[in-house]
Design a protein that fits this description.
heterodimer; A: about 130 residues; alpha+beta; Nonspecific Lipid-transfer Protein, Chain A; five-stranded mixed β-sheet; 5 strands; B: about 280 residues; alpha/beta; Rossmann fold; eight-stranded mixed β-sheet; 10 helices; 8 strands; globular
Chain lengths: ~130, ~280
């Protein structure tokens, strides 16, 4: 399945409900409260996370948004990452970062203190298609 | 019913490294050609437990894996609490040679993964005649960094969580869940700053660029096997290294990543058995 940008956005917008229903993720994130930006191609989303729960998911564009860190991936990055069985270099956000298809910036403490949480969160659209 | 007991024996050997007393833990199984296995950064010898319980290997090889100082069940040297651990090419090479000497291993095979793969290249450069064959998994003379190692040891980030979280993506998505999480458990158990200290060798001090051409595979055969999902040491990194070494053999392993022996033992077996078979054939 190959998604265009609209398809990628639709899939990303399923993340909050899936995350909030995922007990493992909620336990992992119980000490995590932050705001972060996730870029799906040219479209930014701001996630407000409160004790692991996605309280708000706002779609940009924004005027002067505040966030702790941003993860911005090109469409190709998310398309590959969300394949049921991703190809090498598309299977991990840091692999995508090393390849230059995804950019991580800002105050990275919330990300690095909760690496499993964010890796799992951002892979949720893959899992919904039957991958893991 | 008899209990199921793995045929692995663990003991401690005392040795001097860098002029200091060390108590080194090692496990072994099997008999025959000594096969010394070197674990990855921030982990320990348990990564090789599947090789040690594979009768196709242990019928012909004495498989040994020791925990580097500061790792696993090896005790850090006295006074460790007042120093920062940093692995170097010299200290790593010294530990391997001292272990082989202490156990009186005659021309063993050395197999190392990641930092173990890197140091295998140094063994090929500087000590080839001491080994029957050398096998580097996820090995290259250098590779590009992909994160800031300062995150690995600081009081406001859980070391075990961040170490395991970072390396989790180095495994292939095809690798089964159980061995993937067992591999991560070892990272979660590492001592504070130990993974970071190993990466001092891997990223800063142990750059072997410009030295690889000294390897002579006529003295000691060299095999390099790298998983296709490893983005820390990519297949391209290994091929670039191999292009400088006449006679080296390169295998890119499908559907495995940076920890082939522990993340997917069944898949790794398909690749390592033929290599061990060739080494055994050459010894006959």
């Amino acid at each position: 399945m190959t998604d265009n940008l609209t398809g990628l956005l639709e899939r990303f917008e399923t993340v909050p409900a899936a995350a909030n229903a995922d007990q493992w993720l909620q336990r992992r994130g119980r000490f995590l409260s932050t705001e972060c930006l996730v870029g799906i191609g040219a479209v930014p989303y701001r996630l407000s996370i409160e004790h692991g729960r996605i309280a708000r998911c706002e779609r940009g564009p924004f005027v002067m948004p505040s966030w702790s860190f941003a993860i911005r991936g090109e469409e190709e990055a998310w398309r590959g990452h969300w394949e049921p069985m991703p190809a090498p270099h598309y299977h991990d956000i840091f692999a995508l970062s090393k390849r230059g298809l995804l950019h991580i910036e800002g105050d990275l403490h919330p990300l690095m203190a909760n690496v499993f949480y964010f890796k799992t969160l951002l892979a949720l659209p893959r899992r919904r298609l039957g991958g893991h | 019913m008899a209990a199921r007991i793995d045929p692995i024996i663990g003991r401690y050997v005392h040795m001097s490294l860098g002029g200091r007393a060390h108590r080194i833990y090692f496990e072994e199984a099997g008999q025959g050609i000594p096969l010394v296995c070197l674990h990855t950064a921030g982990a320990d010898g348990r990564q090789y437990r599947h090789l040690m319980t594979d009768s196709a290997i242990t019928e012909h090889f004495r498989v040994l894996a020791f925990d580097l100082p500061w790792h696993g069940k090896s005790t850090p040297p006295d006074g460790w609490e007042r120093e920062e651990y940093r692995l170097t090419t010299h200290s790593y090479t010294e530990a391997i040679r001292a272990f082989c000497a202490a156990l009186e291993l005659t021309r063993p095979v050395a197999l190392g993964c990641s930092i173990g793969g890197r140091i295998v290249l140094n063994l090929a450069i500087a000590h080839a005649s001491e080994f029957r064959a050398l096998i580097g998994l996820e090995a290259a003379e250098f590779q590009q960094s992909w994160y800031d190692t300062e995150w690995l040891h600081r009081p406001d980030v859980h070391g075990g969580e961040v170490c395991a979280g970072l390396v989790s993506g180095l495994m292939a998505p095809q690798s089964p869940e159980v061995p993937r999480w067992e591999t991560l458990w070892m990272y979660m158990q590492g001592g504070p700053g130990v993974f970071k200290g190993d990466l001092h060798f891997y990223r800063v001090e142990g750059d072997l660029r410009g030295r690889i051409a000294a390897i002579d595979t006529r003295i000691c055969p060299l095999y390099l096997l790298t998983g296709e999902y490893d983005y820390s040491c990519t297949p391209e990194d290994t091929r670039r290294t191999a292009a400088q070494i006449p006679g080296v053999e390169v295998v890119v392993m499908k559907e495995v990543g940076h920890f082939p022996m522990s993340e997917n033992p069944a898949q790794f077996r398909r690749y390592i058995l033929p290599v061990l078979e060739r080494i055994r054939g050459a010894a006959a």
